[in-house]
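Hi P.,

Sorry for the delay on this. The queue was packed all week, but I finally got your sequence through. Input first:
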Amino acid sequence: MNTRVLIRKMCVCAILAALSFVLALLAKTIFGPGPYRLTFENMPIFIASFAYGPVMGAVVAILADIFSCINTGMTPIPLVTVGAVVLAISSGLVYRLCAKMKFVFKLAISVSVGHILGSMLLKTLGLYQFYGSAVLFRIPIYIVVIILEFTLLYLLFKRRSMRDLVKSVGGDLKYED
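Then the structure:
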């Protein structure tokens, strides 16, 4: 791989990790700390996973989690970090495995699988260890988050300018309507 392209991808992924952190911080500011909040912090992780592959998505997820822990002064909750990584890897793999599907279906399945495995199962289990049984209310919240993030990602990826921007930095977002 061309060194320039790799450096560009790394820079974009660093920006996406920072964006994920800022979205999480914004949600914490609006809804307060704790397990219940409507947040779109996973959107940059999905973008990295779809455009640059599951490994780059996982890197974005880990960086965003580390930034969040440093900012709050909390030690990382391993299962929450693993949940973010699983969200990135599973959604990125499903996105690539569904390559021949219509874009809207491929995106819906990828976002759903990522959130079900990463957010609804693993992150909820990790937060359960920290907060107790009250975190089970996260599951209905994440059903709403899946729908909203899918819609926002679809509208974003539908724009040719977004696909051109990703392509200019070595990524690939194949959009077929």
